């Protein structure tokens, strides 16, 4: 049985709200920040109703799992994920159990670090138009969803308003400095290689993913979330084909429903049907189980 969906934790946290994103809420704990991962779901830049039960639970636990798996590769921001350590800060611990992460405050580097192992999505659209992705020339004649001989690093400049902007690596170097840019590229490719091999052993193709990094006492650390369905494109190996839209292991039921509906994409959409919400919950629970070997 799934637990009730949590759309916001504002009434459940006795700490100042620093930031409310599409899914995450950040609360100020002084030297640290409390991240609450809600069950809100977004698509096409709209936060949708209703929230999806267990989504935040899966995202938070998966991030914690991957931060643990990769800590030998790079330091991260995690302090703990134990709601019981928060005392009176949390007014309803059971409601937020497994949905919280206490993290060290870091200065966010305003670059989204994207690694692509396949030519699909926005990368495929760029390739069709220019033969390149973020200025990186690729062989002619590639087909949609083709596995790349070597993963490519395709950063984006983060915009707090509107979409992040795909940029060439040279532009990233101009924005944050050549040395830091190279360090982020190397760390991103190393993390991707690690996770791609891990996923492959479990019948999953990691098509692409994104990372965020921060600076803490002058040192680069990994922040935000990693290798979750909201930050990565997972394909079941059994579903892999060229030249099609592969059904990814995430909120694809929501995107498919909206794309096939009469919604104009310029106004708040109607609430999602219950069967779409239930199938999306099932997807998140399935990828968690396949990646960790555990059930919630």
Give structural notes:
Helix 1 packs parallel to helix 7. The chain is globular. The protein has helices at residues 55-70, 93-96, 121-130, 169-176, 178-200, 252-260, 274-292, and strands at 17-20, 24-29, 32-37, 41-43, 46-48, 78-80, 100-104, 107-108, 111-118, 132-133, 136-137, 147-153, 156-157, 165-166, 204-216, 219-223, 232-236. It is α+β, with helices and mostly antiparallel strands and 296 residues long. The chain is 30% helix and 26% strand. The model has no long low-confidence stretch (mean pLDDT 96).
- Which stretches of 5+ consecutive residues score pLDDT under 50? none
- By DSSP (H or I, 4+ residues per run), the number of helices equals 7
The run of helices and strands is EEEEEHEHEEEHEEEEEHHEEEHH
Beta fraction:
25-35%
Q: What is the first-to-last residue Cα distance? A: 10 Å
Could you say which overall geometry the principal axes of the C-alpha atoms support? Answer: globular
Coarse structural class:
alpha+beta
Give the beta-strand count.
17
Arithmetic mean of pLDDT:
96
């Amino acid at each position: 049985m799934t637990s009730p969906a949590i759309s916001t934790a504002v009434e459940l946290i006795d700490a100042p709200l620093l930031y409310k994103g599409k899914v995450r809420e950040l609360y100020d704990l002084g030297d640290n920040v409390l991240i609450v991962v809600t069950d809100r779901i977004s698509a096409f830049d709209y936060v949708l109703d209703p929230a999806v039960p267990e989504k935040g639970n899966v995202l938070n636990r998966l991030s914690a799992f991957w931060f643990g798996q990769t800590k030998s590769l790079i330091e991260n921001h995690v302090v703990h994920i134990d709601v019981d350590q928060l005392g009176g800060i949390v007014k309803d611990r059971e409601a937020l159990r497994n949905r919280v992460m206490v993290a060290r405050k870091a200065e966010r580097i305003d670059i989204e670090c994207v690694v692509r192992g396949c030519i699909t999505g926005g990368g495929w659209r760029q390739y069709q138009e220019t033969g390149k992705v973020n200025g990186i020339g690729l062989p002619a004649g590639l087909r949609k969803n083709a596995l790349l001989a070597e993963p490519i690093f395709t950063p984006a400049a983060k915009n707090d308003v509107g979409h992040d902007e795909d940029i060439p690596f040279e532009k990233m170097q101009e924005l944050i400095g050549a040395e830091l840019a190279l360090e982020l590229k190397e760390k991103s490719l190393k993390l991707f290689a690690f996770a791609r091999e891990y996923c492959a052993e479990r019948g999953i193709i990691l098509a692409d993913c994104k990372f965020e990094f921060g600076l803490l006492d002058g040192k680069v650390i990994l922040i935000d979330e990693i290798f979750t369905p909201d930050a990565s494109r997972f394909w079941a190996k059994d579903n892999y084909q060229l030249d099609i839209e592969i059904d990814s292991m995430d909120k694809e039921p929501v995107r498919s429903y909206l794309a096939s509906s009469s919604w104009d994409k310029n106004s708040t959409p109607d609430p999602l049907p219950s069967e779409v919400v239930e199938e999306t919950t099932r997807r998140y629970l399935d990828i968690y189980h396949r990646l960790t070997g555990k059930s919630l």
